[in-house]
Amino acid sequence: MYAATSANISSKLDIGALSMCRGLAQNTTQRIVSVSTLQCAKAGETLFTEGDDADGISEVVSGMLRLYKLLPDGRRQITGFLSAGQILALAPRGIHGYSAEAINDVTLCRYPRVGLDRLIDDVPALARRLLAVASHELCTAQDQMLLLGRKAAAEKVASFLLLMADQQGKGDEISVPMSRGDIADYLGLTTETVSRTLTKLKTMGLIALPAPNRVEIHDRDQLEDFAIGQSESGL
User: Fold this and answer.
1) Beta bridge partners of 102
2) Strands (E), the chain
3) Ordered strands of the 106-112 beta sheet
4) Average pLDDT over residues 158-170
5) Cα angle 82, 192, 151; round to 5
6) pLDDT (tens digit, 9 = 90+) per residue, 11-54?
């Protein structure tokens, strides 16, 4: 993994656009940048594995990560996908509770725990920012429990597409660099079920699949009906 020092981060990034810096005063953002480093990982590279020491947090600047846990029998449960603006590796006990891999080429802004702890003591607004991130992680975990425990296949796939659209903030055009197998491991489905459901949604005119790694939402209202189990199509 390539790492750049904080000295050249300002020349490579729009600091004000970083999620960690958003809404904070300029002098505070400069202090945050002063303790950070820029890291790049290639597609397929492991950033850390479950059980590793967690000595900082990172923000995704570009690209997408998969987060996952392995069951004792080797099966994989993907717990989330992170893209630009999302925070990675909040670990209150100092140990990573999951593994993280780059799906495509990824750039991260990394904030070491030692420097961050000092800043939190001095800047209450940063502490509130991290509390908001932790609260969002909790809500995401609760949504994932509902997704896996109570929703049917069509509801799961529709919910996933809407989640990706909201997460990426690009309207109804969604980048899906992860494989169908990744999506299946996230939703608790088989790869075949994911592919079949996407094809049916396309046939119904709800989505388009212009490329394997791209989805366009054509009927958001009906897709939202699927996500909450109110569709009567029998999909």
Assistant:
1) 65
2) 2-4, 37-41, 46-48, 56-62, 65-70, 76-82, 87-88, 99-102, 106-112, 173-175, 207-211, 214-217
3) 2-4, 37-41, 106-112, 56-62, 87-88
4) 89
5) 65
6) 566 776 788 887 778 888 888 888 888 899 999 999 999 999 98
Residue whose structure tokens are 């590793």: 52
The residue type of 233 is S
Q: Which residues are within 8 A (CB) of 24 and not within 5 positions of it... i.e. 6 or more apart?
A: 32, 123, 125, 126, 129
How many residues does this entry show for the chain? Answer: 235
- CA separation for the pair 213, 233 (Å, rounded): 26
Please give the Cα distance from 21 to 126 (Å, whole number). Answer: 8
Note whether 126 and 28 are within 8 A (CB). yes
Burial of 53 (0-12, 13-18, 19+ CB in 10 A): exposed
Return the SS3 of 21.
Answer: coil
- Amino acid 106 reads V
Locate 64 and state its tokens: 């997408």
The span from the CA of 101 to the CA of 64, in Å, is 9
Q: Which long-range contacts (CB under 8 A, 24 or more apart) does 80-85 make?
A: 80/140, 80/144, 80/186, 81/164, 81/167, 81/178, 81/182, 81/186, 83/167, 83/168, 83/175, 84/60, 84/168, 85/19, 85/59, 85/60
What pLDDT, on the 0 to 100 scale, is given for residue 57? 87
